[in-house]
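Re: beginner question about structure tokens

> Can someone show what the tokenized structure looks like for a real chain? I only ever see the sequence side.

Sure, here's an example I had lying around. Input first:
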Amino acid sequence: MRLCLILTCLAFIHLLGCNSRGESRSQLFNDVFLDDSTTFRGSMLGEKIQTVLEHEKNWVPSHQDKLGLTYQIELENEGSAMIIDYYSDNLKTDKESNRLTSIVAKVLLPDEVEAAKLYNEVQSYFNNRYGLSSGKYGAFEWESSNSFTSSIEVRLKLNEDKKGISLNFIDTESRLKPEPLMETS
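And the corresponding structure tokens:
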């Protein structure tokens, strides 16, 4: 009797531990993020944009130039696709530093229910990762940083048709800074 009670308590404690260690993610979430330990899909804002090609090695960019990369990805969820733009800071700097300064992902889903499920899952993930958000349902924002960038803005937006989600990761430190005024003599 005593052994049975002890085993039951141990099983209960084990179940509690399993549930509190982490949430399980949907397959769609995993297909969109690939790796939830980085900014997005294995890449970190502030690192060399060349690393995006390594992280997205299973896909060929639909567009590539000195300003960035674009990918069009069919997701496993039938009728779902994603367009991702990875932007470099080359437009904002005098030299081509090729640093990843912004990521814009548009997830296109077949219906509003799938979009709402993914939106809620991403919102929960961002709340756990970045803390308190500002905004309201349909348009949330977070502020964060990483080892490469001291100021990041993260945005989650539900598209007007309610069938898509936009994710924006922006290095706010690399925004264009006004040129100092030149003194004339």
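Each token stands for a local structural state, so reading them left to right follows the chain. Confidence is low (pLDDT under 50) at residues 2-21, 175-185.
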